[in-house]
Design a protein that fits this description.
alpha/beta, three-stranded antiparallel sheet, eight-stranded mixed sheet, Rossmann fold, 10 helices
Length: about 290
């Protein structure tokens, strides 16, 4: 049994060098690699349960996208965008010394996966998109913008958890232990002893720019270029991934297999065996 391991890799943006942190599970010599990438304000520890469950079959690698978790913050906030994140992931794959990977991306992590899977000679051979697709509605982005970048601070972990439960209610019915896990790994203690979120509020700048335009974000050309087998998970109550978008994803591009998770909005957190089994069953077909 291999314990979880913490690492960093040095990446490059037009503004200079930065460190991206990642956790790794399973046998480091295993050639079967699964990359798990989180949503906008989350980090790689969201995948602890899934990573433990699959670590016997995979070397599971869960990065903290730059600006989140243990990773560095960018001095120039304009580079918090999908092209930079994708470039960092290519650097990570070079560090891992692997030619091909399976990819699981929740929300933003799925967008990064789509950007890479659409490239010629992509390293992604199997793709799971967790409650995200090539059409992002302006309405859902406005909801997310209500709390992203607001940088609230708390006097205790309990206060922070209450806030996480409020803004992340679409995650569905989770146990107290699951909510505490999702809280503990998305906060940190500031120099003055108060609790704050472990992400750069500057990540909201690109989102605000999109909202000023007031339009849906259309990434269908990326999706249509994907050729690897693809699975789409949708929270049945999701406002980010609409049913009509999922129907189109099943009929064009990679013609994804689709599964809906009852009682969940944006996004399924893959913290129980039933949700993890949907992912593992798809990956095992490779």
């Amino acid at each position: 049994m291999f314990a979880m391991r913490r690492h960093t890799v040095q990446c490059l943006s037009p503004a200079g060098l930065h460190r991206m942190a990642y956790t790794e599970w399973g046998d480091p010599a295993n050639s079967r690699v699964l990359i798990c990438v989180h949503g906008l304000t989350r980090n790689g520890r969201d995948f602890d349960f899934l990573a433990q469950s699959l670590s016997g079959e995979y070397r599971v690698v869960c990065p903290d996208v730059v600006g989140r978790g243990r990773s560095d913050w960018l001095g120039n906030k304009a580079f918090y965008d999908i092209p930079q994140y994708a470039a960092d992931m290519v650097t990570l794959l070079a560090r891992l010394d692997v030619e091909g990977v399976h990819w699981l991306g929740t929300s933003m992590g799925g967008l990064i996966g789509m950007a890479l899977a659409a490239q010629q000679n992509t390293p992604i051979t199997r793709l799971v998109l967790n409650d995200v697709g090539p059409l992002l509605t302006a309405a859902s982005l406005r909801r997310i913008a209500q709390y992203v970048g607001s940088a609230p601070r708390f006097d205790s972990v309990d206060q922070a958890e209450a806030f996480v439960r409020l803004v992340s209610a679409p995650f569905g019915q989770l146990s107290d232990a699951q909510w505490r896990h999702l809280t503990e790994h998305v906060i940190r203690t500031a120099a003055d002893g108060r609790i704050e979120f472990a992400y750069d509020p500057g990540i909201a700048e690109a989102l605000r720019k999109s909202l000023k335009e007031g339009k849906d974000i259309d990434l269908w050309p990326l999706y249509d270029a994907i050729r690897c087998p693809t699975l789409v998970l949708r929270g049945a109550l999701s406002d980010l991934l609409l049913p009509e978008t999922v129907a189109q994803m099943a009929s064009r591009g990679p013609r994804a297999r689709t599964t809906e998770i009852a009682g969940v909005g944006h996004a399924p957190m893959l913290l129980d065996a039933a949700q993890v089994n949907i992912v593992s069953d798809f990956l095992r077909q490779a």
